[in-house]
Structure formats: C-alpha cells, structure tokens
Amino acid sequence: MNTPMCASLGVRKGSWTEQEDFLLRKCIQIYGEGKWHLVPARAGLNRCRKSCRLRWLNYLRPHIKRGDFAPDEVDLILRLHKLLGNRQVYVFIRLRSFYSKVYDVRDL
C-alpha cells in the first residue's frame, strides 16, 4: 500500500490554526494562486502542498458563499430543475452564467 505524500514528508496534519490561515492568505496575496508546490515554503508552513491548496479553495478563498440560498436563487434553481430535470450538469452551467454576473466565474 502506498503512503500518502504528506505522511512521508513529516508535515503537520490536523486542524489549521489562525496563524497558519493568516500565513497562507498572505502568501496567496503576494504570489497568487497556483504553483502549489512552492506555497508551503513561501508561506513558512509545515504543511503539504495539497493541504494548502485544499484549505485555500474550500475555506479561505474570497467570495466563498456559505449559508442559505437567497429567495431569488431558490427560485432560479427550481425553475431550472423544472426546465432541465435532473440533468445536474446543465443546471450547473446555467447557474454559472447567473453567478458570473456577480462573481468572477473562476470563483464558482
């Protein structure tokens, strides 16, 4: 059985601290997204690149919307479902075009 890369590097696992989140945000602000293999060293983190990338994409990225849907969003989803049925890919494509007016498309 193969050992995950993070385990073989002896990097920190588990919950992220506020300090680690701050360092990751600062690093992304300076260098931008991408080149994740360089991020842990640049940020001064004892985490693997995959952990840094997932933390950024799932929790720290600006414009991540959490919580309940707004009434207009619920209405749009219901209308799309009625029109397209359970074809989730097509519903998602329509939602992407709806949100691209508000957010950068890459944020979705």
Automatic annotation (TrEMBL):
GO terms for cellular component: nucleus. Coiled coil: none annotated. It holds the Pfam family Myb_DNA-binding. GO terms for biological process: green leaf volatile biosynthetic process; regulation of primary metabolic process. This is MYB transcription factor. The keyword Membrane does not apply. Its main location: nucleus. InterPro entries: Homeodomain-like_sf, Myb_dom, Myb_TF_plants, SANT/Myb. Transmembrane segments: none annotated. Residues 8-60 form the Myb-like domain. One of its GO terms (molecular function) is transcription cis-regulatory region binding. Keywords: Activator, DNA-binding, Nucleus, Repeat, Transcription, Transcription regulation. It is found in: Nucleus. Residues 11-64 form the HTH myb-type domain. The keyword Transcription regulation applies.
